[in-house]
Amino acid sequence: MANEHKDGFHRRIIEAKGGAMAVLTVIAISIGGLVEIVPMFSAKLGPEHLAGVTPLTPLEVAGRDIYIREGCVTCHSQMIRPTRSEMLRYGEWTRAGEYEYDHPFLLGSRRIGPDLQRVGGKYPDAWHYQHMRDPRSTSPGSIMPTYPWLYGARVDPDEVAATVRTLRKVGVPYSDEVIAGIPQQLRAEGGEIVTSLKAGGFTAEPDEEIIALISYLQRLGKDGTAAIKAGATKASLP
Amino acid sequence: MATASGPASPTAYDDAIVRLFFIATVTWALVGMLVGVFIALELAWWPANLGIAQLTFGRLRPLHTNAVVFAFCGNICFTGIYYSMQRLLKTRMWSDTLSRLHFWGWQLIIVSAALTLPFGLTQTHEYAELIWPIDWAITLVWVIFAINFFGTIAIRKVDHLYVAIWFYMSFVITIAVLHIVNNIQIPATLTRSYPVFGGLTDALVQWWYGHNAVAFFLTTPFLGLMYYFLPRAVEKPVYSYRLSIIHFWSLVFLYIWAGPHHLLYSAVPEWAQTLGMVFSIMLIAPSWGGMINGLLTLRGAWDRVRTDPILKFMVVAVSFYGMATFEGPLLSIRAVNGLGHFTNWIIGHVHSGALGWNGMLSFAILYWLFPRLFGRPLLKPEWVTTHFWIATTGIVLYTVSMWAGGLTEGLFWRAIDPTSGQLRYPVWAYVVEKLAPFYWMRLAGGTLFLSGVVLMAVNFIISARAARAMTPATGDALPARA
């Protein structure tokens, strides 16, 4: 073993010196990360911007926090790959710019359930309301758990404001007006969904968590789909 | 081995800290794998959460991964490092106080993970879910560990640093870098924070972290453990010193580049995806360098694999390391990834690494250490062989079901009817129903693997309680007994 190689270069110069080993290790592990991550901040080499993609509204932000809390991302991806079968199933493949305001990103790594990138507008609000309470009522054969605790639990406007203010700090362009008007905005947005649910025969309050989650799900993919239709990005793959 | 000579008395080593980490390893193995079996049940039978929010799959899956990676695998690494580094460097750890702060700090972090993740407190980044106050605690505890680690190297009584120490060092350094960069977050409240990186930049940083957490938490420290404990168990020197140098440097250099293979076919820039794929394929060479060095260390001792269950565990562990590090590059090829990504195949892949490589090597080390740490032989040595066969059967059921289930999903999702040009299986639930038998088979495999750990824990407990009259442990002086 070691002692049989007394006079090797490595033994004298590197592996006998803890400091040298540590420094060389730092260098060896830094190169790959720097080469791959630093260019992501360049406009030319990094992800493309997509005109027309705007930040989430306050109620959608509240819904996204619920999506994160419940670990929806452990079973649902938000990433449509540019292949024929994916586009037939889910729609246009996901463009980089669609994720621009995603802090954190929610691409997911496992599809126990289907992709949700373009689920926004695919079903009426009432479908989601019923689906989250009893997934098998809308999707026979589903193995998704029920989420009864989202019904009745309330969204706290102060928590939403804390999130929006922090998102602004990390670069999402929220104006002072948006932040000042969060409580009113939450009620207004929630009210719209409550009205549409009433048409479907369901009674709900505008500040229930399920309402916020529905508003987030109904927003998913909408900006991107519109931008792609408007020709703001590369054409669809064959 | 270098430890075979030298003046240091074994009693000068701090084995009390090794015993603490040993007990923590066994405890968290039981907890982490029990959670794993439970969430496997949830996929086979959805009502298993009993309507309780804290028990849903979405909240418990991160608890399972964190418990197995950071609690079970973390503690076995610390067990092995604290045991072997004192002997390789012929010195007690630099500071007993720092050793204890490290131990209790780490266990406290694990407990806090168990008290936050089920309540939906998460950052969502895979393997970096823990909320920001816990992230700060991890940083602090890691710095304590690093100071003690480098302090011990500084006061060593041998000139040379054995290969195991290099691997430990890459673990200490790289995990610090990964953890800090991937957790640059701005707190919104005490329990919520948002990352400064957004969108695909955040995704790329996360998978640079995520992939290298596998590399530098589940691979390099375990290779270090292999380089110490395999030669000790075989009682032969490691096969090639030169090979260990080459594969160490190429492994730590290449691994870092492989992260983007988690984002193939995403909108991450093409050049980054291609770099990730190419470097992943190159990783076969250094990975198999480690496997070959491990297996060839057994040259001339293969007959003992038949009779010594510790060597059985080690041979299977190193073989699974070789298989998982072949499958990983295979899955990193774009076309293969297009089929395997998002499916159970990936779950099978990580478990062939986690159960086969990390699990089996950990069990070998625990069985080898027990008589040396606790000063008494195992009461039921024949149970070790039983454990080996239960665990191996469990892994086979697990990986085969997930491979078959993953291919099923991948192929059904992409099947197109040639006459209509439309999806052949447009109804999602149709494919979900096809997976049910595979989920039950996986549950059986996971349950078997967990049963093996229970058997091991019972063996340790009854052995420790019996023969109390025996002299306390003094380390290396005691005979090996499996």
Name a few traits of the molecule.
heterodimer, A: 238 residues, mainly alpha, Cytochrome Bc1 Complex, Chain D, domain 2, disordered N terminus, B: 482 residues, two-stranded antiparallel sheet, 16 helices, 2 strands, 71% helix
Structure notes:
- The complex is a heterodimer of chains A (238) and B (482).
- Chain A folds into two domains: 2-41, no CATH class; 58-229, Cytochrome c-like domain (Cytochrome Bc1 Complex, Chain D, domain 2, Orthogonal Bundle), CATH 1.10.760.10.
- Chain A is an all-alpha fold and 238 residues long.
- Helix content of chain A is 47%, strand content 0%.
- Chain B has 482 residues and is an all-alpha fold.
- Chain B has a single domain, classed as Up-down Bundle (Cytochrome C Oxidase, Chain A).
- In chain B, 71% of the residues lie in helices and 1% in strands.
- A two-stranded antiparallel sheet of chain B has the order 1-2.
- The radius of gyration of chain B is 22 Å and the shape is globular.
- Residues 1-8 and 477-482 of chain B have low confidence and may be disordered.
- At the A-B interface, helix 2, helix 3, helix 4 and helix 7 of A face helix 2, helix 4, helix 5, strand 2 and helix 6 of B.
How many domains would you count in the coordinates of chain A? 2
CATH topology category name of the largest domain in chain A: Cytochrome Bc1 Complex, Chain D, domain 2
The SS-based structural class of chain A is mainly alpha
| Share in β-strands of chain A | under 5%
Order of helices and strands of chain A: HHHHHHHHHHH
Provide the gyration radius of chain B in Å: 22 Å
* Total domain modules of chain B: 1
Largest sheet of chain B: 2 strands, antiparallel
Q: How confident is the prediction overall: mean pLDDT of chain A?
A: 92
Please estimate the helix content of chain B. over 70%
Radius of gyration of chain A: 24 Å
Number of strands of chain A: 0
**CATH topology description of chain B:** Cytochrome C Oxidase, Chain A
